[in-house]
Amino acid sequence: MNVLTILRSVEELLYEVISWLLFYPRTLLKTLVGPLKIMSYSDREQADKPEKQYLETLSPPLFLVLSILVSHIVELAFGFDIPTETNEIGEVVTSSDQTLLAFRALLFSMYAVVFAWLALRLAGKRIDREILRAPFFAQCYLSGAIAILTGLATTAMRYDQGFSRQAGLVVMGLVAVWYLAVQTAWLRRECGLGLVKAGSFATVAAIGATILVILIGYVAAAPS
Fold first, then answer.
1. What pLDDT, in 10s, does the model give residues 98-127?
2. What is the largest CA-CA distance in the chain?
């Protein structure tokens, strides 16, 4: 690899990282204001060539990972260290920031895959790796939004100064209501369900995904 090739690689990397400063808040705002629109946008982008996908926003998985990264940076900025007294699995997870971020991304992606699987089942569609991809990517936008919001809310509750704990609890409650409302509307649109039935499925799926996340987290955090 010659010097010119290295410089071009650095140029592309620098541009990509700097562009995140613009496209991350833009993607977050679009997700919060028009979640169903950005999920439809994600579905359309899946039909494009890979190099033409998600030119107007960050790709859903990247948005999810960056949301967790931003939340982690805020957590560290407030002086909250990662617990190290745990079992062998937890030691691996917390051995570096990279593995911790990957683990958290896995946890939040559980919500995306549960709802993507549910929508395909309710719509009577065959489930394979290719068909699951589109709804999973669309769901990653929602997972990224709840990752950053719940991360900031959790940090506020841990900070516990003034009304920070109460503010964190309020944000957590609003995020839960927003998430269930969006998932209910999405299931109605994708599967043709009524309001009550879609809301019931959304609630059960969210609870089921949360239980899975808690169990996985417990396995990693339980004392040895």
1. 787 888 889 999 999 999 999 999 998 888
2. 62
DSSP states along 79-138 = T-PPP--S-HHHHHHTSSHHHHHHHHHHHHHHHHHHHHHHHHHHTT----HHHHHHHHHH
User: Are 85 and 223 within 8 A, CB to CB?
Assistant: yes
Give the gyration radius of the chain's Cα atoms.
19
Compute the distance between CA of residue 9 and CA of residue 118 in angstroms, rounded to an integer.
41
Please state the length of the chain: 224
Distance CA 148, CA 154 (A): 10
The whole model's pTM is what?
Answer: 0.89
Structure token pair of residue 75: 């957590």
- Whether the Cβ atoms of residue 10 and residue 1 lie closer than 8 Å to each other: no
How many C-beta atoms surround the C-beta of residue 50 within 10 A?
8
